[in-house]
């Protein structure tokens, strides 16, 4: 694993990312679409779509099928802390 990838995976999510994780948990954990997450979190769907990629890459969210996501145990732990 290179240094950039390691530092990216060790970063804590920002406020928007945490709002997305909370919305996922409140929606039952998934699988749900970016549109559903955006509606629950009160965010623009494009912003959710952009952030969700980073959450998948860092292990907070799992892509279960095309356009559908669910929160991981790591993501649940972050929002319940």
UniProtKB/TrEMBL annotation:
Residues 11-80 form the ArnR1-like winged helix-turn-helix domain. The lineage of its organism: Archaea, Thermoproteota, Thermoprotei, Thermofilales, Thermofilaceae. This is ArnR1-like winged helix-turn-helix domain-containing protein. It comes from the Archaea. InterPro entries: ArnR1-like_HTH, WH-like_DNA-bd_sf, WH_DNA-bd_sf.
